[in-house]
């Protein structure tokens, strides 16, 4: 194997290891936000506004991706939920969402947060990420319903989940005795660019490859 080929493979291995080791992240939009500010290249938002009463196996296609919810319990807006005063859904045990294709982004507006509100991202049967929403730092500005106030003892926030490993299934879980109130479920691809550290490694790797290539060409010319 030539030095050029060895360097190329080594660089690819470094890039692959960097991406593989990046864990999924959970972040919150600014207090009061009820939609994501991230740009999606595919997918979109499910608002639940057209639902009436308990609904099983509900499917909706947005931005070319179909999401199928195995169970939904919608309610009209009240102090506990309803983004922008619209309908919302409550998870009492588990609601599963199957996607028609794997994506790298999921988001939702979670209202009246409690310690049992959990989001699980999966690819097939493999867990990609598991998040308890109360573990995401939220300051005092998130307390109370931003749509008219009320329920000042609980927090309301829009959460973004980004992953380098794509996923095609989401479980929304209530692990306590309360409810997991949520709205504006969002999914798709963000087309995220590598982190600055990854860019630096890539530039360094390309520089090594270019240097090796110049030396190889130079040796060929000298031999001729």
Summarize the structure in short:
α1 (3-20) packs antiparallel against α2 (196-223). The chain starts with a helix and ends with a helix. It is built from 2 helices and 11 strands.
Rough outline: globular
The biggest beta sheet is recorded as: 11 strands, antiparallel
- Rg result: 23 Å
Q: Please tell me the overall pLDDT.
A: 84
- Count of DSSP helices? 2
Count the domains: 2
Which labels suit this protein?
alpha+beta; 224 residues; globular; 11 strands; eleven-stranded antiparallel beta sheet; Jelly Rolls
Note down, in words, how this protein is organized.
This protein has 224 residues and is α+β, with helices and mostly antiparallel strands. It has 2 domains: 1-22 and 195-224; 24-192, Jelly Rolls (Sandwich), CATH 2.60.120. Helices cover 21% and strands 41% of the residues. Strands 1, 2, 3, 4, 5, 6, 7, 8, 9, 10 and 11 form an 11-stranded antiparallel sheet that branches. The radius of gyration is 23 Å and the shape is globular. Residues 1-19, 193-206 and 208-213 have low confidence and may be disordered.
List the helices and strands and how they pair.
Elements: H1 3-20, E1 25-28, E2 42-46, E3 55-62, E4 65-72, E5 74-75, E6 88-91, E7 94-111, E8 117-123, E9 126-132, E10 157-174, E11 180-189, H2 196-223
Helix pairs in contact: 1-2
